[in-house]
Amino acid sequence: MTPERWTRVEALFHRALGCEPEQRAQLLDGAGKTDPELRQEVESLLACQGSATKVLRAEGARLYRIRSGEGQKS
Amino acid sequence: MPATHEVTQLLQEWANGDQQALHRLTPLVYAELCRLAAVYLRNERRDHTLQPSALVHEAFLRMVDQGNPSWQNRSHFFGVAAHLMREILVDHARRRQTAKRAGRNVSLGEAMSLARERTADLSALDDALPALEKLDARKCKAIELRYFGGLGVQEIAQALEVSPVTVRRDLKIAEAWLHHEMRNG
C-alpha cells in the first residue's frame, strides 16, 4: 500500500468510527461510489476493530510468553 | 553491567542528536535484557509466565541513574528496550519451536500440522509487525511501546512526541490492521 493510500484508508477509518451506524453506512456508500477498494479496505479494518485489542493481547501473550521447562502447550 | 551513569549519559547524548550514542547504547540494553530473562528462567517455576513489560521496567531501574531521572531518558530508554524485547522474545520462541521439532522423529503429516500450528499461533503476529513497520513506522513503535514496553497512552505520546489523541488513533487502527493481517495474512 502506498503512503497516500494508507493516509486515505486511515482518514476514512477514523471518520467511520466516529459515526453512528446509519451515518457510517452512508459514509462508506459514498466512498464506495468513487473508490470501491477503499471502502472494502476500510470495512475489513472496521470489522477487526474492537475485538482487535483482545486478539492482539492473546496472540501477543502466547507468542511472547517465556516459559522455563518444556511445559509449553503450543 | 555498565554503570548507571554511563547509560544515563548515552541516553542524554542520543537525545541531543548523537546517533553514535544509540549504537553504543543498544548492545548494553540488549545484554541486560538477555541477562534478566536468563535469571528469570533459572529461578522461576516451570510454568512461570514472564511479562515482557515487567522486564523492560526492571532493566530501566537497574540501568538508568535514578538519582537524575528525566522524562527524556525514560522515553528514549523504553523506545530502545521495547524493540529489543520483541526481538529477544521472538528469537526465544523460534528456538524453542526448532528444538521441539528437532527432538523427535515426525511423520510428514505431523510436520505439516506443526508447520500450520506455527503459522497460526506463533508467526502471525511476528510476520505482521515488520509489515506494519514498513507501512507506518510510528504506529508500529506505538504498538511496541504499548505491548512490549507496557507504557500508557500519555507516556507513548511523550516518547513519540505526538498528542495522546494521535496515540489513541494510531493504536486503534494499528491494532485493527494487525488483527486483519493475522487473520488473513
How do you describe this structure in short?
The complex is a heterodimer of chains A (about 70) and B (about 180). Chain A has about 70 residues and is mostly helical.
Please tell me about this protein's structure:
Chain A is mostly helical. Chain A has one domain. Chain A has four helices and no strands. The radius of gyration of chain A is 18 Å and the shape is globular. The two termini of chain A are about 35 Å apart. By secondary structure, chain B is an all-alpha fold. Chain B contains eight helices and no strands. Chain B is globular. Chains A and B meet through helix 1, helix 3 and helix 4 of A and helix 2, helix 4, helix 5 and helix 8 of B.
Structural class of chain A: mainly alpha
Low-confidence stretches of chain A: 64-74
Rg over C-alpha atoms of chain B, rounded to the nearest angstrom? 18 Å
The amount of beta strand of chain B, in percent, is under 5%
Q: Please count the beta strands of chain A (DSSP E, at least 2 residues each).
A: 0
Task: Report how far the terminal alpha carbons of chain B are from each other.
Answer: 41 Å
Largest interface: A-B, 33 and 41 residues
Share of residues in strands of chain A = under 5%
Q: Helical amount among residues of chain B, as a percent range?
A: over 70%
What is the general shape of chain A? globular
Average pLDDT of chain B, to the nearest integer?
A: 78
Task: List unreliable stretches of 5+ residues of chain B.
Answer: 105-122
Count of the domains of chain A? 1
Structural class of chain B: mainly alpha
Order of helices and strands of chain A: HHHH
Which whole number gives the mean pLDDT of chain A? 79
Number of helices of chain A: 4
Give the end-to-end Cα distance of chain A, rounded to a whole number of Å.
33 Å
The coarse overall form of chain B would be globular
| H and E order of chain B | HHHHHHHH
